[in-house]
Amino acid sequence: MTTSDYRKVFKQLNAKPVKKAKYEKFNSPRKKSCGIALRHCKNCGRLGAHIAKYGLHLCRHCFREMSVGLGFKKFG
Fold first, then answer.
1. Is 24 exposed, middle or buried, given 0-12, 13-18 or 19+ CB atoms closer than 10 A?
2. How far apart are CA 62 and CA 8, in angstroms?
3. What is the residue extent of each domain of the chain?
4. How far is Cα 18 from Cα 43, in angstroms, rounded to an integer?
């Protein structure tokens, strides 16, 4: 169920606050506490190939473009 779908029912449930609270509890989208969907590139928003070391939070593609400006050097 998408976010917009579960909010459409509120028009009918506004008259019944107890049922509305129960509906919100069981049908609202869950907050994620772990998993790949929490970590994304702060530059482009990509989920995969995430580099979080040193607080970078960049994907490998953006890291390659920005690494020299960040002070990283390529060795070897």
1. middle
2. 39
3. 1-30, 36-70
4. 43
The structure tokens listed for 56 are 């970078």
Q: Give per-residue pLDDT as tens, 35-61.
A: 888 889 999 999 988 999 999 999 999
Superfamily of domain 36-70: Ribosomal Protein S14/S29 (4.10.830.10)
Which residue pairs, CB below 8 angstroms and at least 24 apart, start in 55-59? none
- Decide: pTM greater than 0.90: no
Burial class (CB in 10 A: 0-12, 13-18, 19+), 40: middle
CA distances 7 to 10, 37, 38, 76, Å, are 5, 23, 24, 56
**DSSP 8-state assignment for residue 53:** G
